[in-house]
Write a structure and sequence with these properties.
heterodimer, A: mainly beta, four-stranded antiparallel sheet, globular, B: mainly beta, seven-stranded mixed sheet
């Protein structure tokens, strides 16, 4: 079974500062994927970034980077130069591969609020 | 191109009634997933389709829940004899299929969800 833990229910960050959202995971799969999704108040789930378990380099997508520490089983999301539009719920999720079934296991989320 | 669409966007129903929720995935996406999000919670997996078959139904909470997919495209989630605890947002997602033991995984694209309220 897979498990995702997000220990920060809420965070407040000043605009333009960097922010790190924590995520730890547990799995017995050798091959797995780690994802971060953003959910604004409108409710849609927006894909942000992906890290494969075999990837040696940390993933980056614009202002988003994923700090992947495999030995610690952590996959923290770093947002640089935060903006007011970054205020949202952020979910860490993981997927193992079971004959193509890549169902996602989600954490409970972190509500990020950017302060002007 | 068009994203994942779901209908209706909102559904209010009386306890005991049946409801059908529809999902139109992105064209060409063979994998389709249903999730449920209760108020203030993370997403909970319900069922996975690969083409028209559902090899993983392990997340369906009870036998009142069923789903089908036709033509490798549209999927319908049916809840019979709805209960108040069924109230939630039901989200559908689609993706390109991963291979067996794939080293790479594909992001899932989510629809806007159907908010179900059982009174």
């Amino acid at each position: 079974a897979q498990k995702i833990t997000q220990t920060q229910p809420g965070m407040f960050v000043q605009e333009k500062e960097a922010v790190t959202l924590d995520c730890t995971y547990d799995t017995s799969d050798q091959s797995y994927g780690l994802f971060w999704y953003k959910q604004p108040s409108s409710g849609e789930m927006i894909f942000l970034i992906y890290q494969g378990s075999y990837d040696e380099q940390n993933a980056t997508e614009g202002r988003y980077s994923l700090n992947f520490q495999k030995a610690r089983k952590s996959a923290n999301l770093v947002i640089s130069a935060s903006q007011l539009g970054d205020s949202a719920m952020y979910f860490c999720a993981m997927s193992g591969s079971n004959f193509g079934n890549e169902k996602l296991t989600f954490g409970t989320g972190t509500r990020l609020t950017i302060i002007p | 191109g068009a994203g994942v669409s779901q209908s209706p966007s909102n559904k209010v129903t009386e306890k005991g009634k049946d409801v059908e929720l529809r999902c139109d995935p992105i064209s060409g996406h063979t994998a389709l997933y249903w999730y449920r999000q209760s108020l203030g919670q993370g997403l909970e997996f319900l069922i996975y389709f690969q083409g028209n078959s559902a090899p993983d139904k392990s997340g369906l909470p009870s036998d009142r829940f069923s789903a089908e997919r036709t033509g490798g495209s549209v999927s319908t989630l049916t809840i019979q004899r709805t209960q108040q605890e069924d109230s939630a947002v039901y989200l559908c997602a689609s993706s390109l299929a991963g291979g067996q033991g794939a080293a790479n995984f594909y992001e899932q694209y989510f629809g806007p969800g159907t908010r179900l309220t059982v009174t």
